[in-house]
Amino acid sequence: MKRIAIYDTTLRDGSQGEGVNFSLEDKLLLTKKLDELGVDYIEGGYPLSNPKDHEYFVAVQQLPLKHSKVCAFGMTRRKNSPPETDTCLKALIDSQAPVICIVGKTWDMQVQQILSTSLEENLKMIEDSIAYCRSLGREVMYDAEHFFDGYKANPEYALKTLKAAEKAGASVVILCDTNGGTMPEVISERVTAVCKEIKCQVGIHCHNDCELAVANSLAAVRAGASQVQGTMNGIGERCGNVDLVSVIANLNLKYGLEVLQPGSLAKLTEASRYVYEIANLNHRNGQPFVGQSAFAHKGGMHTHAVALNPVSYEHIDPTQVGNERRVLVSELSGRSTILTKTQKYDLHNDKPLMSKILNQVQDLENDGYEFEAAEASFDLLVKKVAGLYKPWFDLIAYRVNIEHDKNNKPITEATVKIGLADKILHTVAEGDGPVNALDGALRKALLSSFPQLSELQLVDYKVRVVNNRAGTAAKVRVTIESRDQGDVWGTIGVSENIIEASWLALVDSIEYKLFKDKEAGAKTN
Amino acid sequence: MKRIAIYDTTLRDGSQGEGVNFSLEDKLLLTKKLDELGVDYIEGGYPLSNPKDHEYFVAVQQLPLKHSKVCAFGMTRRKNSPPETDTCLKALIDSQAPVICIVGKTWDMQVQQILSTSLEENLKMIEDSIAYCRSLGREVMYDAEHFFDGYKANPEYALKTLKAAEKAGASVVILCDTNGGTMPEVISERVTAVCKEIKCQVGIHCHNDCELAVANSLAAVRAGASQVQGTMNGIGERCGNVDLVSVIANLNLKYGLEVLQPGSLAKLTEASRYVYEIANLNHRNGQPFVGQSAFAHKGGMHTHAVALNPVSYEHIDPTQVGNERRVLVSELSGRSTILTKTQKYDLHNDKPLMSKILNQVQDLENDGYEFEAAEASFDLLVKKVAGLYKPWFDLIAYRVNIEHDKNNKPITEATVKIGLADKILHTVAEGDGPVNALDGALRKALLSSFPQLSELQLVDYKVRVVNNRAGTAAKVRVTIESRDQGDVWGTIGVSENIIEASWLALVDSIEYKLFKDKEAGAKTN
């Protein structure tokens, strides 16, 4: 089984992505996670470019990494000056990283127009820089920037730059499709040509500007490349780098090549989601292999067939990559979906009830609800339609007041009046904002009767305007993600008023928690 | 120049996507837009599956389409019964669509396990259904479901199903990678094999489960397919259908093939964004060719090189697909980015000022700000640092009150007290929600002095929790998109309090509008 090395540049090239900003702490957390996943190389940063990257290389030396090697990234020496006094090379050496990745120019046009130097001097810059870092005991890899464009313009010169790197002792030369504009068959042809001319290892570094980065990376491996550079979830500048998640899954599951460590593949979904969380980016539901929707089934016909025979609509078993099958609630899904989602209630023989649930879902969807990310709210809806719901408390009124004068922080106060058993509870709380204050007041009222609510944490809060093209007022859809020790659940509220929508989602979250604990208690008793 | 037909199934297969729900009106708007783009075929729905799809085919007959043909989708007749009495075929004929697309089974396992019928009867189902629709004067296309999996399991039988369709008069047989699990070289090999055996046109229908749908569709075209089925923006079940946007751009710009109509390509970005708006889905910033970030440059080095020579970091000219180059503000972008963004102020020789702006951006980014989607707030920041800013009014205080009792709609009231010139204005307004009420009260105070504010519309409002791993309270980031007759702009506010964050973004939007109109007035005077 041939082994392909995985080189992750999420921390460096990934951080060029729009909306991506990693703190030092983020970078260390990600390094640990990538090491757990079993990535071979972690490119930690560009030590000369900013102080945070420099600090990273100091701090990362304290991390007990099991498998991954940390790499520092930098450029070839400046033109017409020796490597020994070059500030970028000095920063690379000072980083103490065991592997150094040096990028240099391949494209004759760029050497002349951007570097404003001779083709000959560029070859020396490549050779000198690599030889210098090698002489100080580092493993050196060479990133051939714009390789495919450069090869198109002047193949002889492009090959000369690779040979200069090889001669100077580079362990791998990496062919970069920097602009992401190359087609798979061209990648294949040029990697084949390079592998004939070069004896050291060949790597591939693709960008996704034509939505072909995964295909291009796979084509390169089939043509002889043994290292793939990319980022987790494909984050990166413009349209992103190649998504290593898809590359890893395809190399292993589709081509039977060895990647990462034994058992790594089943950690892929969790690792992908962790990176989104740390990067504070929205997950991409439709992401291949690891997305929430990657094995989600909505169409009634499909849902039925999947239940009969998973291979009908699943190209792999989702558990191989740590993901799971989901059945979605929607107007298209029909009765068999609702059946699957309501199995625990044993209602499946009650056809009129199933229709009532389906109708209710459709009505709420027309109002702007989406139950796909709010399975706890859906569960409450089923209880309500089936007559299994009894409210845990009655809302009598709430009030929120936010006051701000320009010299002070805004003050937010919420009051809540509820009926619980035969008492009326009236509580007040301040908060950072209105939802926080409402949550505080409501918990004050409920906590002595339901102490388990102290475990409940609100972990995410999202707001989306639901455009209403019918011309009436726009609504907002609030989704809240909640967590206790063992569980995560989503709830939803829709209203013209963001506070009311938040309140609805908040109450659903609390009621779901109370029902869930009661049902779990009934089981264990 | 060879022509490739584009078959859009956004309205049918796309609507299977998680979170996608089209109203009848949505579907008609999308049909018009796809026709304007010059798509060859528009699959409007599955008339038997739900009443909305049936109504669509009635209503679409009134649309004056310039180029596109509308198709109705359905299945082969049921087993062991004649086509004349089949309800699905009846619905297809009744739809009056000039083109009918019939899907049938290719995979022997599915015929036996899912349809529970014989391989022979399945061939008859395909042949009868197509022949029947042909006999009533319709053009018929045949979707070979699971073609690639079926061919792998039993190539002889898979080819027989295609030959049954061809014999019955199908104009195109479309090879579907229904599970999205096939690799590009396998697609290529099997499409080549089919093109040798079949005389009618061959089409390709890919799903993106391995992130290879675009590569697979291109491979099929290179192997002889002349029709590509897919959806706008790749929306669809699981990981989506192939994104026609990328397919169209690659076929035309990279392979020189004729697609759509003359001039269509430059409409691609606008059409893509229109589909997101109608589908009420978030745009994918990193989407190839048409994403907001597809030609955005963040890294300082890149930004500098792009300015010198666009071909260095752009694989195509963004205007070819109706997109544009953007230069982003961020800690990595350095001085040359800030220079590009502040050109209109002619401050580029003032290096200390440039550093001050850069520092301010970095400080605010650490606080949770992101200027990438809030260029209007960035513009105000530059004005403030450069001493070109004078507030249009002074906030003295605001107050928002939301009251809800369970029998009534929540009531929201906001009061605003501001200083304007030498007056103090104190106004109050009700609103659907707190932002709407604050906006109302503020406009009441400002409108008599600045009547141009009546043109200002808030068009989008987004909230994101900014996770703060330092352990202090979480902040929320509010971005508001505003519009007047000629312009769209984004502003941002960050605070622990959602109301305060909204207020900051709201005030920025109003101030930006006032500055913008003043500067435009200065130019025309």
Automatic annotation (TrEMBL), chains A, B:
InterPro entries: 2-isopropylmalate_synth_dimer (IPR013709), AIPM/Hcit_synth_CS (IPR002034), Aldolase_TIM (IPR013785), Citramal_synthase (IPR005675), LeuA/HCS_post-cat (IPR054691), LeuA_allosteric_dom_sf (IPR036230), PYR_CT (IPR000891). CDD domains: DRE_TIM_LeuA3. Residues 4-269 form the Pyruvate carboxyltransferase domain. SMART domains: LeuA_dimer (SM00917). Keywords: Acyltransferase, Amino-acid biosynthesis, Branched-chain amino acid biosynthesis, Isoleucine biosynthesis, Transferase. Coiled coil: none annotated. Its EC number is 2.3.3.21. The keyword Acyltransferase applies. It comes from the Bacteria. One of its GO terms (biological process) is L-leucine biosynthetic process. GO terms for molecular function: (R)-citramalate synthase activity; 2-isopropylmalate synthase activity. The keyword Transcription does not apply. Belongs to the alpha-IPM synthase/homocitrate synthase family. PANTHER family: (R)-CITRAMALATE SYNTHASE, ALPHA-IPM SYNTHASE/HOMOCITRATE SYNTHASE. This is Citramalate synthase. It comes from Telmatocola sphagniphila. The lineage of its organism: Bacteria, Pseudomonadati, Planctomycetota, Planctomycetia, Gemmatales.
